[in-house]
Amino acid sequence: MLTNWKKGRIGLLAASSAFLLAACGGGEDAETVESTDPGTQETTDETAGGDFSGQTLNISVGDDYTPFVEAIIPAFEEEYGVTVELTERDMFENLEALPLDGPAMLGPDVMIAPYDRVGGLGQQGHLLDVTLPDDGRYDDTDKLQVTANDTIYGNPFVIEALVMYYNKELLDAAPTTFEELEELTKDERFAFSSEEGKSTAFLSNWIDFYNSYGLLAGYGGYVFGEDGTDTTDIGLNSEGAIEAIEYGTKWFQEYWPQGMLDKTTSGNFIDDQFIGGKAAAIINGPWGAANYRDSGVDYGVAPVPTLPNGEPYAPFAGGKAWVISSYTEVGDLAQEFLNFVTNEENQTLLFEEYTAEIPANQDARKVIADAGEDELAVAVIEQYNSAIPMPNIPEMAEVWTGAETMMFDAVSGNKTAEESANDATELIQQNIEQKY
Questions:
Q1: Concatenated DSSP letters for 37-88?
Q2: How confident is the model at residue 42 (pLDDT cuts 50, 70, 90)?
Q3: Which of 4, 32, 264, 363 is deepest in the core (most CB within 10 A)?
């Protein structure tokens, strides 16, 4: 179940750097899934004012969500007197095909998109703007995830954020500050045998910008202004961001083995050290849990410890939304489905019976947090409170490219922290000016 999160994360980053890809034809590879309860497709007289009776809604999702959507279709069909056709197709294939399939009337009415794709697709005219229910199910952070230029293009569905995993056989409790993590490096249990003076007590893949952003933002760095849409205001070379890079450099140069500098292998190195009992604590996303569990690690999960400046770690807030194709002929019905699939009951069902992903719905999220039975879920929910919505506009692609080597240039000694931050920011600005 949780491995699906990893697949979504990888695709999310790839999609950010190549926002609109040429689409392949109209869904010939898609597999149509029949409703599990044909009897609920009969038209009723008492359906949302009778506005939708007899209409057909086409929904397309990946195989990771097919069982969940199949389970809720009968109730939706019965309530609105409609028919739902469910097609199984990879999320990114749906989005990449939309610019061609939509105008040809071959695409679905409703689909799922990662938050960082929503704004761009909406601005380019491929998504219908929506109205979120005014029932408290979303807070300002949730709404920001699906908003671009003051227009809302989807209903938030699930959330994710980087958290800290710790080995319960090595630590009695989760560290709560980075000072505690630094103190752990003095423990000989975590000495890296092949490099004198180096430690694997705590590891984080900060060579990768997605992973290091929580450090930068915690010190005051930012992307695209206060709300993630002002491309003239890039704060990756702010005083705070430079201080964060300097602190990250300390870990690379004083504590971590050389293997942490290799972007292509550092993630695997971190996992190997944690699974092998050589790392006491690491930072990773929810997608890492299944691997650690299957590898027999007795792990705990907690929010990332407080930074040396006293501020919380502030990673990107990720996740997915339900969106509506702007080419649909049943937009009002599609809006009703978005409200239906993201209500408290269905969001709780998704978490408890299907994917274990954290609901965006605030009421469902509170029930999970209050129950406290799922340590990973509770940690993600708490961490999300300090997370920063990832900018969902097309210009974000230039940030991934421009900041790709920012940390490496500093920690390897090629540049000072200030030079690295200034060069990355300048490159991002230049690329945006040239391309947009």
A1: -GGGGS--S-SGGGSSTT-EEEEEE-TTTHHHHHHHHHHHHHHHT-EEEEEE
A2: very low
A3: 4
